[in-house]
């Protein structure tokens, strides 16, 4: 893969056969170093980590994956009563991918949708995760409670989780206009200046593909108000399950923790991570690209503790 190689100097491209097709990723750092899995968010790809991954690879074996349905990973069909993008299923598939790379236990840092897979994986298989960093999310059940209390909050959630093919049809009319509009809205500057032009090219290449638009909508349908992701959260909350590993919660001051009823850290401490530590990053939602230096420092300190 020549495209994007210059964003990850010293990293090798990976194609991994997984339970639901091929996954694309990049690996860098000493093979003997402790493994660290990086999972990106919506509507991006592994390229969102390009400003952090080389530094993290100085102390860890870093694997940055494209999530199923995103980037260059497989985008299998979904729907008709079965959601291939439920976070429990994705977590199990990522465990299989990591095993094929030789990693049974690993640290995990996830942003946005990648963080949702990360905490579900860590709840379902806590023995797999050494440390868990969650960037700019609250649990799915908490997120929906906020939306239900304020229908104007995060309108993309109810829109993308609408039945197929309603959101797909709208997005396909102008994918760049829709997704770039979200990037602008969620940054502190409300423009695209935080994004490297090479990374934006990779994002556009993926989100313009109809199968990937469908996959992203299925991702949100799985996390819908009545979807399997929220149901899994509610079952674990009722059972009193919590995350036993060290947890770091990073929240953006200009997007996620702005004008919210409680901070992201407080939401996690109230639910699945009572002993979580946290930090607020002076950025919009895309902190790994908008504010790479403080985000990197927070992750490095957490991983080294």
From TrEMBL:
Pfam families: Abhydrolase_1 (PF00561)
Residues annotated as domain AB hydrolase-1: 34-205
Keywords tagged on the record: Hydrolase
GO MF: haloacetate dehalogenase activity
EC identifiers of the protein: 3.8.1.3
InterPro entries listed in its UniProt record: AB_hydrolase_1 (IPR000073), AB_hydrolase_fold (IPR029058)
Claim: Hydrolase is one of the keywords in the record: yes
Highest taxon in the source lineage: Bacteria
Top EC class, one word: hydrolase
Descriptive protein name: Haloacetate dehalogenase
């Amino acid at each position: 893969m020549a495209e994007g190689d210059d964003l990850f100097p010293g990293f090798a491209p990976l194609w991994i056969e997984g339970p639901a097709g091929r996954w694309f990723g990049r690996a860098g750092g000493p093979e003997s170093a402790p493994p660290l899995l990086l999972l990106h968010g919506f509507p991006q790809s592994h390229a969102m980590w390009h400003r952090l991954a080389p530094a993290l690879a100085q102390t860890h074996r870093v694997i940055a994956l494209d999530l199923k349905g995103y980037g260059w990973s497989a985008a299998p069909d979904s729907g008709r009563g079965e959601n291939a993008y439920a976070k429990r299923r994705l977590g199990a598939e990522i465990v299989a991918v990591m095993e094929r790379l030789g990693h049974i236990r690993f640290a995990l840092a996830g942003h946005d949708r990648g963080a949702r897979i990360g905490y579900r994986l860590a709840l379902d298989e806590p023995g797999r995760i050494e440390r868990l960093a969650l960037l700019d999310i609250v649990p799915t059940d908490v997120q929906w409670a906020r939306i239900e209390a304020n229908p104007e909050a995060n309108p993309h959630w109810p829109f993308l989780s609408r039945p197929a093919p309603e959101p797909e049809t709208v997005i396909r009319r102008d994918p760049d206009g829709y997704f770039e509009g979200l990037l602008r809205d969620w940054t502190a500057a409300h423009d695209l200046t935080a994004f490297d032009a090479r990374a934006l090219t990779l994002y556009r290449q993926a989100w313009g593909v109809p199968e990937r638009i469908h996959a992203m909508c299925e991702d949100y349908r799985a996390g819908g108000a009545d979807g399997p992701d929220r149901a899994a959260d509610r079952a674990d909350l009722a059972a009193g399950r919590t995350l036993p590993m060290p947890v770091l919660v990073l929240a953006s001051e200009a997007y996620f923790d702005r004008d919210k009823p409680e901070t992201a850290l407080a939401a996690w401490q109230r639910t699945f991570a009572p002993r979580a530590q946290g930090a607020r990053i002076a950025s919009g939602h895309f902190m790994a690209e908008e504010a790479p230096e403080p985000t990197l420092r927070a992750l490095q300190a957490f991983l080294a503790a």
